[in-house]
Amino acid sequence: MVKKRIGSTLFLLCVFVVLYLPIFYLMFYSFNKAGNMTHFTGFTFDWYKEVFSDKRLIAIVVDTVIVALLSSLLSTVLGVFGALAIYLTKGRHYKNMLLSLNNILMVSPDVIIGASFLILFTLLGIKLGFISVLLAHIAFSVPIVVLMVLPKLQEMSPTLIDAARDLGAKRLDVLLKVVIPFITPGIFAGFFMALTYSLDDFAVTFFVTGNGFSTLSVEIYSRARQGISMSVNALSTLIFLITLAIVLVYYFSTRGMGKVKQLSGGEDA
Amino acid sequence: MTKKTIIQFDHVAKRFDGEIILKDISFAIERGKFYTLLGPSGCGKTTILRLIAGFLEPSEGTITFDGRMVNKIPPNKRQVNTVFQDYALFPHLNVFENVAFGLRINKLTNKEIEPRVKQALHFVNLDGYQNREIAELSGGQKQRVAIARAIVNQPQVLLLDEPLSALDLKLRTAMQVELRQLQRRLGITFIFVTHDQEEALAMSDEIFVLNQGKIEQSGSPRSIYDEPINRFVADFIGESNIIPGTMLKDRVVSFAGKTFDCVDQGFDEREAVEIVIRPEDLEIKPHGEGLLQVRIESQLFRGVHYEMIGKDEDGNSWMIHSTKSARIGEEIGLFFEPEAIHVMRHGETEEAFDRRLESYEGAGHD
Ligand SMILES: Nc1ncnc2c1ncn2[C@@H]1O[C@H](COP(=O)(O)OP(=O)(O)O)[C@@H](O)[C@H]1O
Ligand SMILES: [Mg+2]
């Protein structure tokens, strides 16, 4: 038994090493004086200085964050209403159909989504740039939010809504005072998922961007093609650390909520 | 309709997707009484409560509340509050805010809300629990919060959908007493739903026995227990011996191959009937004495009494509840009073049944 556990732990460790090694490799050489990824000649912060002195890069970082925040915010609002609409849909078939349509968007390849948006925007005459990227990000984030919020709605006992109506609540009161508070953890989860999807999207953005507007992943891609500069490594390291921080914040905030739920589960039993 | 009537159902029917769930339900609910809807699971009890609360609209018939037709009035505009089977407490609000929910919706000020919430919590013996989270409460405490949340709005009618079914036996019995006391103190109408006949008998002023979307019988616990209208009610309300018989003439009935005096009348001559004798009305006598001879086939010790099954010479089974015990295989005599025999007519409507009973109950019999 013990042997088996050591075996599986070792296996897990190997998997994580394989997954994280390239990232740490990249991070390690972001401090390399030599400016390449072959010989480590000495420690330096030069590449980080270069990143922070690169005005265009800083502007792109700001744009990326604005697109991410705006798109995840708007898609959270849309996604919550979408989830509510699916939840309130009567008739099993119709409901399943809506859900499938939602899931198809989730699983279809980014390339197809990106290409189809490019066609749509060109047809509609929307200028490629900030607006087109924002719209595309909202579009691929909405299904994610729906998928995170819907289980919370289904977890909610329908008698909760009845109880609120029984106590005199109008429909809007029911939504604002009972339903929304109940699904708040799902809304936050959806928002953070949308945020990370938007931050690291490459394929869709690559298709619909234009007129000099760029996001980080697209910019890094084009710079990497022109030959690797260690400032790209430095930037990647920074992004990795920020993502890690977001994940940790999300983890600890949901763990707090999970504790309350565990307590209630234990009491009922 | 009298002044005392608060809710009235007139020929109410309810269909779901064409399937008939309630058929032709008519009754009147009076102010200040404790009513129970009793019936097996799936018979339509919750549906009736949801019609009263306004979550459902009747497919046919009318519902009146305080003399006003309310078929289409939404739940938030009715002076009725519900205690739900699963309590339906709001998990994101603490005890105080759960109870205050209805008052806040009605835009009362904090100054008005606080004493009323405290008083409601006091009514259900939850003083000092205001700041608890719902997740920290036991089943019984959640139950009380649900009741407090309903009564704080001072409804004219409180609906309770199987509120005690999730509690263990001891707590359930204690809550039965408390609920009955609460109803007396508040002086409002309670409509209580249960599938537990003992609970119904113990708590109610009036019971409606439901079966497959129909009211089989309504009346006081005593009258329903002593004078069930048919086999379903007799069987559902307590244990009973139901034996086929023949009504020879008024106050004389024959069953198990013998003739007995009874107190029922108004039947056709030689009409085939069913007779009911409750197990606790059978008295054990030595062999050869009494009115019937049976051989004991099985015996269980039930705590307060023994439960025995005996077979008579005609092959009828008799369940006997007695503090005396008997041996298995022993022959014993059974004695019962004429009043213990209750005669049921096949397929009699509740109206005809009540009329027949009234015609001779005045004559000195019970
Ligand atoms: N919304 C509904 N749609 C379809 N059928 C329903 C609905 N609500 C209840 N029923 C059916 O009506 C019958 C009575 O239900 P209910 O009133 O809940 O019974 P009870 O409370 O006595 O157990 C059941 O057969 C149930 O399946
Ligand atoms: Mg029910």
Bound molecules: adenosine-5'-diphosphate, magnesium ion
Structural class of chain A: mainly alpha
Give the strand line-up of the largest sheet of chain B.
6-7-8-3-9-10
Kindly provide the radius of gyration of chain A, computed on alpha-carbon positions and rounded to a whole number of angstroms: 23 Å
For the termini of chain B, the CA-CA separation is: 29 Å
Q: Gyration radius of chain B, to the nearest Å?
A: 24 Å
The CATH architecture classification of the largest domain in chain B is: 3-Layer(aba) Sandwich
Please, how many domains of chain B? 2
Taking the sheet with the most strands of chain B, its summary is:
6 strands, mixed
Number of helices of chain B: 9
**The CATH top-level class label of the largest domain in chain B:** Alpha Beta
Tell me the count of domains of chain A: 2
Judged by helices, strands and strand pairing, the structural class of chain B is: alpha+beta
Describe this structure in words.
The complex is a heterodimer of chains A (269) and B (366). Chain A has 11 helices and no strands. With 269 residues, chain A is an all-alpha fold. Chain B is of the alpha+beta class and 366 residues long. In chain B, 26% of the residues lie in helices and 34% in strands. Chain B is built from 9 helices and 20 strands. Chain B has a 6-stranded mixed β-sheet, with helices on both faces. In chain B, a hairpin with a 2-residue loop joins strand 1 and strand 2. Chain B starts with a strand and ends in a 5-residue tail after the last helix. Classes of the chains: A mainly alpha (269), B alpha+beta (366). The structure holds adenosine-5'-diphosphate (ADP) and magnesium ion. The site of adenosine-5'-diphosphate (ADP) has 10 residues of chain B, from helix 1.
